[in-house]
Amino acid sequence: MLKEVDRIEMVSLVDNSIDFLSTIERNDVQNVVSWVKKCKGREWFERYFRYPVAEHGFSAIIKVYYDNNSAHSILFDTGISSNGVLDNAKAMGIDLSEIEAIILSHGHYDHFGGLVNVVKEMRNKSLPIIVHEDMFKVRGVLERDGTMRRYPEFPSEEMVRPSKYVKTKGPYTLFDNSILVTGEIPRKTGFEKGFPKQYFYENGEWKPDPFVWDDRAIVVKVKNRGLVIVSGCGHAGIVNTVYYARELTGTEKVYAIIGGFHISGKDYEDAIDSVVSEIKRVNPKLVVPSHCTGWRGAFKFAQELPEAFVWNSVGNMYKI
Q1: CATH homologous superfamily of 6-319
Q2: pLDDT of residue 180
């Protein structure tokens, strides 16, 4: 059973958008300027703070607190560029050396791009990197003109030493069962399509690979609040992901859903209404569509769940 934590703090390190000016009228969300001034102090802010930048990709640092302030930190995904996550963390005064594990949502380059350099920054600290064996596949996407665009390959084990890959297909927990990695997510909805144009290379030929079985999410159960679900890209479908998180934990109440919902682009936008309708039935108190959700999907969430919706910005801190 998933252990209840007293609270969770999450900072968005890499995302597709950035907004320092818009107000956020919630106690559980602060933009980067607000929390850096409070945590680091105005003098530090004026001398050292640099605005982080946005890029296509996803990364977040997540810290859980329980049992009289016992704290553990993980890094969830590492963005698309080799140094983006490191530069943004430094700009905000975040020390990544405190992380105790890296969890990758799936094996696409906009989620593992900074992995090798992050590991180097750990000063030879051996970290577990939680992965799925499918992340090591040679992958590509079939273009509309019939050509195959090959994706950058996933870093080998040699490239991340002395850290080590921990390969798991099923649910996996860390830190006294306080953080859950869902493992492979069952596909039950008819409107969430996976990635129909994805292929993998094996034995000299490209083969269809539409399901992205390595797509996983993070789940934390917060005392007196409910589940906090963080998705990297949501290829499994954010509705499938939420329902599976509830099934795994035996907890119906969902407080927050944060991350990529993968309902942007011509092949996926017809699912927006269905996705928003189902999430509305779940009735989360905080919904943060990020990364590959796209503006059409985010706008629909803002319309249908106005009290729960928050537009993510690089640097946003979520304290639940």
Answers
A1: Ribonuclease Z/Hydroxyacylglutathione hydrolase-like (3.60.15.10)
A2: 98
